[in-house]
Backbone:
């Protein structure tokens, strides 16, 4: 749709004006720093940063009704920079010029309603938001589109050049970082640190295929993160983990898309997310707050954070009802099928504490909840979801298991509508499905396959067949006819098919 075809009253707003005034603000000491250089933690106290728009009030001068029309009409544009997460440019990166935006097809992932069977099974109406349909097959692309667009902006301004982007990862972050960094070659190169043998082969193949330098480190993600932090503090590198505030900013788009998909009606809605490094849940909370404060939405949805009992430091923190007595204690994680969430010391924990408190106060009630689930339930619900038309990863299974737990605990009401986050594509974690079906899970996972969910190939070779086809040696004539007939009969017998009576 061409600009001159838009309604006159919103035409001036369709193309962003880039009139934001962004700064870093420390969550610990409130120090404010400019965004002209790469910065990840406060130079004074070492606490994590968040990005604030000093010109934020300008957004409130536009009514919520007009904002809704701007976003809805903007979707009709064919400008690539505004087709992804930067459809919500004013709320995400209002200083980033459109020619610096990196768009690889991220964002606007489908929201798929569960079938009748699953909704009856969970006793609630729910949808999966399939973030595995992003370019690198996970939600991490949202944050990387933001972080690398910012770096692209600095490169175009001549502020930086020859950037080495680094990250620690359990798989998805490295795939997204390497993909988006490769788009900016030769100005940007990437290196990723992975815990040795704790990343699926599918995930490992992605950064390798994108040309990143891949280093495998003994230990778990938390150990990799410490090394990456050391590198970012002592060498000229760009950190791409969620400690990077631009990552969080990009992931806020998840909230905006949900709001738009439900025509900005967030009344009696629940959003369920796995926690992991806590970047995504803080981004989603922050996004809904921004839309609420500017009148784009009239109510704040309930937020449900889910953790496996093998990696649940955030859940443990909120077990204490009195905020004054809460103390965050990092933990040693155990093996989990929700591999990307196997993090005992989330770097975004300070953001969680800050934003959960603010979200609850804005809601006028407790509106953020946390539950833990077993490894068994994660696998079972993941498989059950995929048997009913979805492509949920194990983290999507973790979210669905969390919804079921929350429904049992009456945290989620039967009248509410739930959006369940499936953070990555099921194919990334197909190895866990293979272990489930072959009943070969190591003991530490504490998973016993349910016979009704196990599915394995059935080899059909009728014993009376003397000849069968082979590669380079096909059957012909009567031999082929006999092979087809006997094999079809065996398959029909196995499936219990009834033969059609010919007239």
Residues:
């Amino acid at each position: 749709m061409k600009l001159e075809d838009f309604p006159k009253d919103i035409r001036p707003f369709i193309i962003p004006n880039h009139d934001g005034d962004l700064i870093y603000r420390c969550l610990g000491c409130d120090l404010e720093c400019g965004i002209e250089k790469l910065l990840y933690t406060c130079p004074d106290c070492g606490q994590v940063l968040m990005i604030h728009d000093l010109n934020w009030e300008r957004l409130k001068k536009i009514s919520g009704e007009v904002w809704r029309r701007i976003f809805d009409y903007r979707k009709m544009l064919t400008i690539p920079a505004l087709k992804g997460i930067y459809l919500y440019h004013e709320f995400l990166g209002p200083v980033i010029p459109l020619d610096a935006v990196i768009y690889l097809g991220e964002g606007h992932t489908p929201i798929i309603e569960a079938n009748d069977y699953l909704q009856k099974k969970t006793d609630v109406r729910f949808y999966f938001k399939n973030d595995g349909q992003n370019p690198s097959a996970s939600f991490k692309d949202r944050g990387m589109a933001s972080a690398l667009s910012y770096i692209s902006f600095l490169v175009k301004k001549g502020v930086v050049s020859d950037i080495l982007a680094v990250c620690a990862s359990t798989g998805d972050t490295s795939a997204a970082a390497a993909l988006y960094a490769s788009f900016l070659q030769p100005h940007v190169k990437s290196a990723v640190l992975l815990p040795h043998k704790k990343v699926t082969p599918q995930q490992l193949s992605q950064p390798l295929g994108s040309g990143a330098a891949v280093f495998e480190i003994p230990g778990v993600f938390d150990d990799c993160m410490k090394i990456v932090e050391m590198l970012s503090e002592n060498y000229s590198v760009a950190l791409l983990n969620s400690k990077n505030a631009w990552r969080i900013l990009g992931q806020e788009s998840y909230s905006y898309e949900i709001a738009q998909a439900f025509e900005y009606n967030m009344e009696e809605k629940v959003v369920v997310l796995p926690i992991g490094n806590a970047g995504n849940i803080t981004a989603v909370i922050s996004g809904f707050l921004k839309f609420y404060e500017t009148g784009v939405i009239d109510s704040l949805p309930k937020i449900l954070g889910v953790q496996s009992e093998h990696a649940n430091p955030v859940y443990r923190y909120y077990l204490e009802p009195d905020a004054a007595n809460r103390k965050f204690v990092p933990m040693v994680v155990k093996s989990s099928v929700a591999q990307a969430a196997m993090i005992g010391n989330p770097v975004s924990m300070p953001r969680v504490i800050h934003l959960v408190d603010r979200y609850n106060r804005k809601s006028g009630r407790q509106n953020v909840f946390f539950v833990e689930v077993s490894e068994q339930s994660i696998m079972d619900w993941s498989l059950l979801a995929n048997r009913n038309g979805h492509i949920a990863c194990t983290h999507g299974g973790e979210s669905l298991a969390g919804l079921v737990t929350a429904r049992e605990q009456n945290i989620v009401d039967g009248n509410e509508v739930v959006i369940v986050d499936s953070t990555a594509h099921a194919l990334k974690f197909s190895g866990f499905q293979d272990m489930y079906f072959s009943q070969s899970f190591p003991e530490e996972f504490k998973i016993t396959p349910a016979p009704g969910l196990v599915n394995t190939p059935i080899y059909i070779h009728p014993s009376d067949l003397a000849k069968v086809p082979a590669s380079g040696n096909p059957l012909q004539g009567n031999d082929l006819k006999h092979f087809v007939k006997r094999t079809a009969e065996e398959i029909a017998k196995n499936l219990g098919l009834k033969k059609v009576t010919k007239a």
Q: What stands out?
A: The first helix runs from residue 11 to 14. The radius of gyration is 25 Å. DSSP finds 18 helices and 13 strands in the chain. The mean pLDDT is 95.
